[in-house]
Amino acid sequence: MGALTFTDEFTSTVQPGRLFKALILDAPNLIPKLMPEAIKNVQLVEGNGEMTDKEIVIGNALNAGDKIKHLKHRIDAIDPEKLTYSYAVIEGDGALEKVDSISHEIKFEATEEGGCKTKNVSTYHPKAGVEVKEEDFKAAKDEGLALLKAVDAYLLANPDAYV
């Protein structure tokens, strides 16, 4: 079976640069604070510690009950000026055991209203002989959306943060 690709969009009244800084550049610090029930910690596994380092590999310990408990992702490309971020999930348990990797390409674009539209293109690369369906990853996609909404709500409640 070939790769499966899904596109998700999220619209916010927060400016794209602020959302990018909070969600991408400060993710290791901010996300465990906003979602301690879902993400226990984020730690650097390889790299120099800067989120703009393409060689970084980040491990996440998740508080996900019987769902995914850990994952590792590798940054493939990050451009704070163009507000784009590409990374691949390269290791994990649960539903992630069905895939070799999941690649994500995220773009933050300004809207006419002054907010932003976030577009995430996710491509699931299944292991040989394994069939994957969108519903296999629905919980992970839902948690990703919940994370985005949590950061958005934080920025709306804290207008001076990440300016």
From TrEMBL:
Superkingdom field: Eukaryota
SUPFAM superfamilies found in the cross-reference section: Bet v1-like
Sections of the chain in a coiled coil: none
All residue ranges annotated as the Bet v I/Major latex protein domain in the record: 2-158
Keyword annotations: Pathogenesis-related protein, Plant defense
Pfam families: Bet_v_1
One GO biological process term: abscisic acid-activated signaling pathway
Xref: Gene3D superfamilies: 3.30.530.20
Recorded GO CC terms: cytoplasm; nucleus
GO molecular-function terms, A-Z: abscisic acid binding; protein phosphatase inhibitor activity; signaling receptor activity
Membrane spanning residue stretches: none
Family under the similarity heading: Belongs to the BetVI family.
PANTHER family listed in its UniProt record: MAJOR ALLERGEN PRU AR 1-LIKE, OS08G0374000 PROTEIN-RELATED
Protein name (database record): Bet v I type allergen
